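Feature request, filed as a ticket because there's no other form

It would be nice if the structure record came with a short human-readable summary line next to the C-alpha coordinates. Right now we just get the raw output. Example of a typical job, pasted below so the devs can see what we mean:
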Amino acid sequence: MGRAMYAASHIFVTREDSGKKRLNASYFLGVLSLVAIHSARRPYWARSASAPFNDFGSTIGNDAGINLFHEFEPGIKQMVKGHTPRFSSKIREGITHNQILKEVVSSPAR
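Raw output as currently delivered:
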Protein backbone atom coordinates (compact mmCIF):
# COMPACT_ATOMS: atom_id res chain seq x y z
CA MET A 1 0.00 0.00 0.00
CA GLY A 2 2.96 2.29 0.58
CA ARG A 3 4.09 2.44 -3.05
CA ALA A 4 0.56 2.97 -4.32
CA MET A 5 -0.16 5.70 -1.79
CA TYR A 6 3.11 7.46 -2.57
CA ALA A 7 2.52 7.32 -6.33
CA ALA A 8 -1.06 8.61 -6.07
CA SER A 9 -0.22 11.36 -3.56
CA HIS A 10 2.82 12.53 -5.50
CA ILE A 11 0.63 14.93 -7.51
CA PHE A 12 -0.62 16.61 -4.32
CA VAL A 13 2.64 16.87 -2.39
CA THR A 14 6.07 17.82 -3.69
CA ARG A 15 9.45 18.24 -2.06
CA GLU A 16 11.47 21.42 -1.79
CA ASP A 17 15.23 21.47 -2.39
CA SER A 18 15.72 21.05 1.35
CA GLY A 19 13.63 17.85 1.30
CA LYS A 20 10.68 19.39 3.12
CA LYS A 21 7.23 18.39 1.83
CA ARG A 22 4.79 21.03 0.61
CA LEU A 23 1.61 21.39 -1.43
CA ASN A 24 2.17 21.10 -5.19
CA ALA A 25 0.65 24.51 -5.91
CA SER A 26 2.15 24.82 -9.40
CA TYR A 27 0.37 21.62 -10.45
CA PHE A 28 -2.98 22.83 -9.11
CA LEU A 29 -2.59 26.24 -10.75
CA GLY A 30 -1.77 24.54 -14.04
CA VAL A 31 -4.82 22.29 -13.85
CA LEU A 32 -7.07 25.19 -12.83
CA SER A 33 -5.84 27.30 -15.74
CA LEU A 34 -6.37 24.36 -18.10
CA VAL A 35 -9.94 23.96 -16.85
CA ALA A 36 -10.60 27.70 -17.15
CA ILE A 37 -9.34 27.78 -20.73
CA HIS A 38 -11.31 24.68 -21.61
CA SER A 39 -14.55 26.07 -20.20
CA ALA A 40 -13.96 29.49 -21.81
CA ARG A 41 -13.72 27.80 -25.21
CA ARG A 42 -17.23 26.41 -24.88
CA PRO A 43 -20.11 28.52 -26.16
CA TYR A 44 -22.10 30.15 -23.37
CA TRP A 45 -25.19 28.02 -24.05
CA ALA A 46 -23.15 24.80 -23.73
CA ARG A 47 -21.54 25.70 -20.39
CA SER A 48 -22.67 24.21 -17.12
CA ALA A 49 -21.69 24.99 -13.56
CA SER A 50 -20.51 21.45 -12.88
CA ALA A 51 -18.37 20.95 -16.02
CA PRO A 52 -15.25 22.74 -14.68
CA PHE A 53 -15.40 20.72 -11.46
CA ASN A 54 -15.78 17.51 -13.46
CA ASP A 55 -12.82 18.46 -15.65
CA PHE A 56 -10.70 19.34 -12.61
CA GLY A 57 -11.49 16.09 -10.83
CA SER A 58 -11.01 13.90 -13.88
CA THR A 59 -7.67 15.52 -14.70
CA ILE A 60 -6.38 14.92 -11.18
CA GLY A 61 -7.72 11.36 -11.20
CA ASN A 62 -6.13 10.64 -14.57
CA ASP A 63 -2.76 11.99 -13.42
CA ALA A 64 -2.89 9.93 -10.21
CA GLY A 65 -3.74 6.83 -12.25
CA ILE A 66 -0.86 7.45 -14.64
CA ASN A 67 1.50 7.83 -11.67
CA LEU A 68 0.26 4.49 -10.33
CA PHE A 69 0.79 2.86 -13.71
CA HIS A 70 4.33 4.22 -13.97
CA GLU A 71 5.12 3.00 -10.45
CA PHE A 72 3.99 -0.56 -11.17
CA GLU A 73 4.78 -0.69 -14.90
CA PRO A 74 7.86 -2.96 -14.64
CA GLY A 75 5.93 -5.55 -12.64
CA ILE A 76 2.96 -5.38 -14.99
CA LYS A 77 5.20 -5.82 -18.03
CA GLN A 78 6.94 -8.79 -16.44
CA MET A 79 3.62 -10.39 -15.53
CA VAL A 80 2.15 -9.88 -19.02
CA LYS A 81 5.33 -11.00 -20.77
CA GLY A 82 5.43 -14.23 -18.77
CA HIS A 83 1.86 -15.18 -19.71
CA THR A 84 2.08 -15.50 -23.47
CA PRO A 85 -0.60 -17.86 -24.83
CA ARG A 86 0.73 -21.08 -26.38
CA PHE A 87 -0.78 -20.48 -29.79
CA SER A 88 0.98 -17.13 -30.16
CA SER A 89 4.28 -18.69 -29.07
CA LYS A 90 3.89 -21.35 -31.77
CA ILE A 91 3.11 -18.67 -34.36
CA ARG A 92 6.21 -16.74 -33.32
CA GLU A 93 8.34 -19.92 -33.51
CA GLY A 94 6.99 -20.65 -36.99
CA ILE A 95 7.73 -17.13 -38.21
CA THR A 96 11.24 -17.23 -36.77
CA HIS A 97 11.85 -20.68 -38.30
CA ASN A 98 10.66 -19.47 -41.73
CA GLN A 99 12.90 -16.39 -41.54
CA ILE A 100 15.93 -18.54 -40.71
CA LEU A 101 15.15 -20.83 -43.66
CA LYS A 102 14.83 -17.85 -46.02
CA GLU A 103 18.15 -16.45 -44.83
CA VAL A 104 19.88 -19.80 -45.37
CA VAL A 105 18.37 -20.25 -48.83
CA SER A 106 18.98 -16.66 -49.97
CA SER A 107 22.58 -16.42 -48.76
CA PRO A 108 25.07 -16.85 -51.64
CA ALA A 109 27.42 -19.81 -51.64
CA ARG A 110 31.08 -19.01 -51.14
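Something like this underneath would help us a lot:
The chain has a mean pLDDT of 81.
Residues 8 and 64 are 5 Å apart (CA to CA).
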